Amino acid sequence: MQVGIQTSAYHHYLTRSWQHLLPHPHRVRRLDMVSNVLSHFDIVGLQEVDGGSFRSSHVNQVEYLATRGGFPHHYQQLNRNLGRFAQHSNGLLSRLTPTLIEEHRLPGTLPGRGAIHARYGDGPDALHLFVAHLALSHRGRVRQLDYLSEIIQPLRHVVVMGDLNCTPDQLHSHSRFCASLPLHPVRPLLSYPSWQPRRALDHILLSNSLEAQDVRVLDHLFSDHLPIAVDVALPPSCQAVLEALHKQQSY
Fold first, then answer.
1. What values do phi and psi take at 198, rounded to 5?
2. What b/e sequence results for 207-216 when a residue is b if at least 16 CB atoms lie within 10 Å of its CB, and e otherwise?
3. In the predicted structure, residue 175 carries a pLDDT above the cut 90
4. pTM above 0.85, yes or no
C-alpha cells in the first residue's frame, strides 16, 4: 500500500518521500479507489498500511478499507510504532471471521517486520492464512523464512501471501522453508515496479492441498507494487470446516 502514496516512476521515491511523514489531501480519495477494488474479494492481505497517525490524517487505513469494502472483520498488526507520526502495519480484511489470529514478530537486524496468522476453523482441516512482509536483505529473509517454517511445518491447508521481497528462484533456494510444507507458488507474476513490472516480489503460496485458479495481477497503480490475486479451490474436507464456521457465525 505504501501508506497510500502513488508511485509511478523511480523519481517519485524522492519527490514524494515527504508523504511518508506528512499528510496528503488526496490520500483518503486514493483509499476509496483501493476499497472499490478490494470489495470484490473474500480475503485481503495488506502491507505498508498506516494504523492512524499524523501522516495518514489519523485515519486507520486497515479499518477504513474494511468499512468501505464491506468486510465484517479486519485486523491490524502494528510493526513499527513511531507514535503519532507513523503506525507502520500489516493488515487483514476478511468476510469470514477467523477462529484465531496470532501475531508474529519476525527476526531481523532491524525490527519492524511481521506476519499475521489467521486460522479459519478447528482441527487438521482448518485453513491457515499468513500475511507477511519480509526483509529487504537476504540474511534477514533467511532468518524470517526459517522462523515461518517452524510454524507452517505441522499445518495442512496453508496460504502464505504478501510482499516477500524475493523472486521465486530466491524463494526456492531456501531449502528449509520449502521442506517445511510443499508450498507451491502460483504462476509468478511481475509486480514490481508497478509502472513497468520486471520482478516478481509479491507472492501467494499454496499448500499442495489447495488449487490455484484464475491467477492474475491487478493493473492498479495503488503503490510501487502491483496487487496480485488468485481464486483458491479448497478440498472438500477444508471446505466443510469453513461452511460449518460460516453457519456458526451466521447464528
1. -130, -15
2. bebbebeebe
3. no
4. yes
